[in-house]
Amino acid sequence: MLKISNLEKRYGKNEPVLKGLDLTVDGSSVVSIVGASGAGKSTLLRCINRLVEPTSGRIQLNGLDLVDLRGAELRRARRKIGMVFQGFNLIDRLTVMENVLSGRLGYVSLYRAITRKYPQSDIDRAFHLMERVGIDHYANKRADQLSGGERQRVAVVRALMQEPEILLADEPTASLDPKTSQQIMSLLQALASEMDLPVLINIHNVTQARMYTDRIVGMRHGQMIFDGGPKDFNQDALDAIYGGIESPDEQGQTIETAPAAEGASV
Ligand SMILES: Nc1ncnc2c1ncn2[C@@H]1O[C@H](COP(=O)(O)OP(=O)(O)OP(=O)(O)O)[C@@H](O)[C@H]1O
């Protein structure tokens, strides 16, 4: 279980960008975080894995307090937090398999990592997961020879190699075309349930948030102003989250009817 209590983040002397946020995520739920640009969505995710230092408040993952961890303890805790990014963050010159195995870096010795002598159990797990997401035939291909959707699948498998207790996804579909975005969202939803893994997804596309996640958290100016199921996420919620905010294109959100998801393989 992820339990965030009274989380505040202030960059320098500026106004806080997270203002006393509380959020609990249990079981294998898939939670989307929506909000206008600057609402604090990325900051929230990055506080969880401590890529950003919280100013105050508490973050617990399955009972472990994350905020005060340092050094080796923090590294150990980070293994349990998988993360997927908008830009995939793969190492282009390495193969798919090498990228995937890098998800084990927190577990294997430096010698094994440098010499790329990963235990057979890691290699088996890598193949199993690559097969699950449909990229096993690319194992020996360079990462930069894959399409965006394939690259994001590699990133998802790399995160799963960590044997995470939670998966964080920061705009995982923002660089993908609509159909591929749906496939990735559908994949994340399926993996959450298969692996009993909570997944937190920052996403701008509210239609996809409603389609592929169990719960939507709406943020505005660093505060949570909506927390409910997709069915409760109506035009009023949308107006409360985005209303009156100067909007470059994607912030002029409206609720669309469900896009055709046919052919979206999971
Ligand atoms: N490293 C930083 N230093 C100073 N201010 C920052 C830093 N990172 C983010 N901010 C500010 O914090 C606020 C929240 O940013 P954040 O990236 O968390 O929002 P967001 O909701 O994820 O936005 P977007 O959807 O555009 O990614 C913004 O005003 C941003 O300018």
UniProtKB/TrEMBL annotation:
Lineage: Bacteria, Pseudomonadati, Pseudomonadota, Gammaproteobacteria, Oceanospirillales
Keywords of the record: ATP-binding, Cell membrane, Membrane, Nucleotide-binding, Translocase, Transport
CDD domains found in the cross-reference section: ABC_PhnC_transporter
ABC transporter domain location: 2-246
PROSITE patterns: ABC_TRANSPORTER_1, ABC_TRANSPORTER_2
Region (Disordered), start-end ranges: 246-266
Pfam families per record: ABC_tran
Subcellular location: Cell inner membrane
Source organism superkingdom: Bacteria
Membrane topology annotation: Peripheral membrane protein
GO molecular function: ABC-type phosphonate transporter activity; ATP binding; ATP hydrolysis activity
A GO-annotated cellular component: plasma membrane
Signal sequence coordinates: none
Coiled-coil segments on the chain, per record: none
Source organism per UniProt: Saccharospirillum salsuginis
Protein's name according to its UniProt entry: Phosphonates import ATP-binding protein PhnC
